[in-house]
Amino acid sequence: MPPTYQRPPDAVDPLEAEFSDDLTERVFQERLINFARNQGWRVYHTYDSRKNEAGFPDLIMCNGRFVYCVELKTNKGRVTKMQQAWLDDLDNSAMHVVRVWRPSDRDEFIRVIQTDARDPQPR
User: Fold this and answer.
1) CB-facing half-sphere around the CA of 74: CA atoms within 13 A
2) Is 82 within a domain?
3) Is residue 95 in a domain?
4) Which CATH number does the domain housing residue 47 bear?
5) What is the pLDDT of residue 50?
6) Is residue 10 a part of any domain in this protein?
7) Of the candidates 27, 57, 62, 28, which has an alpha carbon nearest to the alpha carbon of residue 45?
8) Cα dist. 105→8, 91, 92, 93 in Å?
9) For the chain, which has fewer Cβ within 10 Å, the N-terminal or C-terminal residue?
10) Could you tell me whether strands 98-101 and 67-72 are parallel, antiparallel, or unpaired per DSSP bridges?
11) What pTM was estimated for this model as a whole?
12) Which residues form the domain of 80?
């Protein structure tokens, strides 16, 4: 069996660098959308949500097997009461994969997007 590649301990994971903890929400959103689409996900984002109902999640992501409703925040960002109400209602419905993702959650969203969400983990 051929040896498996192991990244040197001091090497930086390119995905970890792309999703560093200090990203603004806008940059985080752009990078996450591009990453998900490159992995075969369809991603919906309302470009201008000012006339929509407050609190609806930032992204709806679908891969043909799962639908994720995702609110994006910086590591210090707070979920509003209206956002939490939407997330709770969506989470309690038949469509139960609901998340708030921050750059520091990169291990989770990279795993979900790259593994086709075969085994979504509970929050």
Assistant:
1) 8
2) yes
3) yes
4) 3.40.1350.10
5) 82
6) no
7) 57
8) 23, 19, 22, 24
9) N
10) parallel
11) 0.70
12) 22-114
pLDDT tens for the 123 residues of the chain, in order: 455 545 556 555 667 777 888 899 999 999 999 999 998 999 999 888 788 889 999 999 998 888 888 999 999 999 999 999 999 988 887 766 667 888 898 888 888 888 755 555 544
Report the C-alpha gap between 50 and 76 in whole angstroms. Answer: 23
The alpha helices in 2-117, defined as continuous H runs, are: 14-18, 25-38, 81-91, 106-114
- Give the helix/strand (H/E) hosting 62: strand 59-62
How many structural domains comprise the chain? 1
72 closest CA partner among 42, 44, 103, 108: 103
Structure token pair of residue 53: 């109902």
**Any idea which residue has 């799962």 for tokens?**
66
